[in-house]
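Page 47, continued from p. 46.
Same chain as before, 152 aa.
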Amino acid sequence: MKLFIFFMIVVAISCQDDSNHGCKTNCDCPDFTTLFNDQGKEDLLFTQGEGCTFNSTCKYVAQGAVQALWKDSEIETPTETRDNFFSVIDSEEPVATFDMFSLFGIICKKGAWYITKYPSGIWYWTLDSEEVSFGTAEELDGKKSKIYYAMW
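Result:
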């Protein structure tokens, strides 16, 4: 009996700290759907799995994208950019459904959502109002960019 009580005390104490021992998980990011306008939310199926795992499946879209601010990205800002943001699109072809978290490598870090994968590189507008594609998945994957907005 004493061993059982000791075991319960150890389990209760270990669940109180911030590390994850299978007892407590800290997912401090805001509701993912707040990144979308109301029109985009109707085609978004968002679920939180066990712990800090997520899935966001998007129904048929002509083209989905996330936007990030240059200042909140590990990607260097081109000198000829017109805006303070860039876009990352899902693909250049329409798709039936896709999981945003897998496709864009979305993670929760320090209370914010970040992308770490760039399936079609990034897109931005130049000072001459020309839309430019920059980088490849191989060059950009692994760099973190805080998500500012998401849309379809």
